[in-house]
């Protein structure tokens, strides 16, 4: 057996589910060390088939060949070793249902925003890995992605099931040249990342204003209420957040995060502007549901979630 055949046998096969900006960029990087199926929209699939995936930015520049774009499970013709879900949280259940035959019994990692995706994925397979990423990804055009900046390592941690799968995933991602670290407290990491989104995203989206609006004196009380409720629910869930108290986090939010992102419009703003579903039920809506389960009042989160759902159903006329 020659070296090329040996390398082919050793290369893992990875399925990236819901490949938009994050998933396509990840597929492009992983293609260096793995056979990669990228489940994506036809507009991306057609472009990638024609001339490869175009990448630009800190993860490399140029066309990446060898990615196998698919638009349905029947197009996957070989056995898959690992699955990484990068779909928007609103699509987690539908894409898991569509690809259930493929992912059943496989290790599946979630690299998605919001809280609750892992619980959905766990209905379809036994080994679930939670993940966080703070890299700046964007779609330039069909089959063309840009990676602008990387503020922290990618992190993965076991949510349920086999720990060996986590070690393998991290090894593959690291070999592909992506900065990655294991996170033994991945639940805490997912909640910590969601805090900013819970506190400011729906307010920004509803007021058609950038994140800096959260610092306004008339808005601050609502932000404080959202965060304190979230901390109460996290404590009931047994989640230990990096900031010891809600007030500690609020100090960080108003002194660091809001100023840093003051001019930014969050993705929820663009979802409402474009008449698309938001991830509100994986953020404030999720906190409200857990609060009800634990007998914790969450009037701020319940109210905000209701406003956003109404805005989804009644798109603003331009």
TrEMBL record:
GO terms for cellular component: cytoplasm. Pathway: Cofactor biosynthesis; coenzyme A biosynthesis. GO terms for molecular function: 2-dehydropantoate 2-reductase activity. The keyword Oxidoreductase applies. Residues 186-309 form the Ketopantoate reductase C-terminal domain. Pfam families: ApbA (PF02558), ApbA_C (PF08546). Gene3D superfamilies: N-(1-d-carboxylethyl)-l-norvaline Dehydrogenase, domain 2 (1.10.1040.10), NAD(P)-binding Rossmann-like Domain (3.40.50.720). InterPro entries: 6-PGluconate_DH-like_C_sf, 6PGD_dom2, ApbA, KPA_reductase, KPR-Related, KPR_N, NAD(P)-bd_dom_sf. The keyword Lipid metabolism does not apply. Residues 14-160 form the Ketopantoate reductase N-terminal domain. It is an enzyme of class 1 (oxidoreductase). Catalyzes the NADPH-dependent reduction of ketopantoate into pantoic acid. This is 2-dehydropantoate 2-reductase.
């Amino acid at each position: 057996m020659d070296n090329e055949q040996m390398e082919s046998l050793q290369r893992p096969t990875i399925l990236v589910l819901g490949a938009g900006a994050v998933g396509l960029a990840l597929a492009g990087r992983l293609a260096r060390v793995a056979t990669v199926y990228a489940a994506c929209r036809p507009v991306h699939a057609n472009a990638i088939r024609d001339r490869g995936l175009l990448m630009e930015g800190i993860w490399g520049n140029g066309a990446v060949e060898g990615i196998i774009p698919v638009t349905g499970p029947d197009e996957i013709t070989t056995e898959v070793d690992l699955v990484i879900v990068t779909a928007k949280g609103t699509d987690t259940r539908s894409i898991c249902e569509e690809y259930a035959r493929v992912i059943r019994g496989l290790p599946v990692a979630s690299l998605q925003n919001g809280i609750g995706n892992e619980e959905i994925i766990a209905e379809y397979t036994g080994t679930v890995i939670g993940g966080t990423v703070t890299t700046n990804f964007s779609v330039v055009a069909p089959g063309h992605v840009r990676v602008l900046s990387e503020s922290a390592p990618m992190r993965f941690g076991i949510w349920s099931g086999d720990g060996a799968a986590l070690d393998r995933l991290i090894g593959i991602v690291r070999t592909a040249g992506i900065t990655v670290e294991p996170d033994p407290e991945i639940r805490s990491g997912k909640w910590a990342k969601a805090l900013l989104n819970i506190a400011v995203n729906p307010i920004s989206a509803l007021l058609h204003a950038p994140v800096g609006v959260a610092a306004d004196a008339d808005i601050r009380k609502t932000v404080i209420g959202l965060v304190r409720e979230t901390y109460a629910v996290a404590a009931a869930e047994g989640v230990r957040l990096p900031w010891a108290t809600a007030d500690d986090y609020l100090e960080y939010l108003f002194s660091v995060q809001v100023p840093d992102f003051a001019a930014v419009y969050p993705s929820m703003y663009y979802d409402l502007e474009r008449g698309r579903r938001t991830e509100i039920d994986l953020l404030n809506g999720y906190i409200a549901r857990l609060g009800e389960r634990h007998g914790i009042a969450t009037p701020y989160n319940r109210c905000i979630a209701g406003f956003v759902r109404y805005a989804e159903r009644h798109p603003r006329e331009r």
